[in-house]
Amino acid sequence: MMRFVPLALYAAALAAYVWHFAVRHAAVGRAATTLLVAGAFAHTFLIGMQTMEFGHVPFASPTSAISTFVWLLALAYLYTEMTTDERAMGALILLLIVALQSIPTLQPGVEERAAVLESPLFGVHVSSLLFAYASFALACVIGITYVLLFKEIKAKHLGFFYARLPSLQVLDSMNQRAIVVGWVFLTIGLVVGAVWASQAPTTDPRVQAMQVQDPKIFVALVCWAVYSFEVFAARRIGWGGRRTAYLSAVGFAIVLLNFVPISYFLTRSHNF
């Protein structure tokens, strides 16, 4: 039953963040952060127990990878909140956290680590990608809040979002930083994954399927291309603001497509 505790705390934190977003009361904001910290601690304990049980960090199966991703996202958001003292994005982040954490909580998978996954390179590959995905999730939420605020300012109705969100400049800067961090880790994850695949025993049919034609790998490369263009456009041709926000949303939609339905139903190379 321990696996239900993080989800319950995340759900309570979601309710508190939504309440804080509506009323902007400092005590409610502190309560929301406290609940999220408690959820992250409970999740850390759960992952620690699973690591002791399995002998490795649980991310070999799609279900356990989602749980580890949610944990990293919670930590990444907490770091962002504590360094910026801004809780406005908490409601959207927690909505994503609760939705994704429901999958491993309600339908836990079996963590069976195949021999081909014993290489340390596999751990670097997966952990880098999960951290990249967490950064992209933050960027997506920041982008959504940017668009909401921009539309309110453009319509000259400075009300609900204007009173609750940071400035457009701050949001744009936060979005671009999250994208760059995510792109770096995504690049590391893909390069290390390619090296690991080249060294893995080709007798395993899943290793044989590790080709560009496999949906998991193809979509990952598409994701890298989208974020590479976003980094290039922001630094070389001055893209920012709404364009960066929309690209962040498109990129993370591709991430979710690759992370959930493709991982569960379509890939032949990553169905460990």
Q: Any key phrases for this structure?
A:
272 residues, 2 domains, 0% strand
TL;DR of this structure?
This protein is mainly α and 272 residues long. It has 9 helices and no strands.
Task: Write a structural description.
Helix 5 (120-154) packs antiparallel against helix 6 and helix 5 (120-154) crosses helix 9 (242-266). Helices cover 76% and strands 0% of the residues. It folds into two domains: 1-113; 114-272, no CATH class. The chain is an all-alpha fold. It has helices at 4-23, 26-54, 62-84, 90-106, 120-154, 168-199, 205-208, 215-236, 242-266. It is globular and about 65 Å long. It has nine helices and no strands. The mean pLDDT is 85.
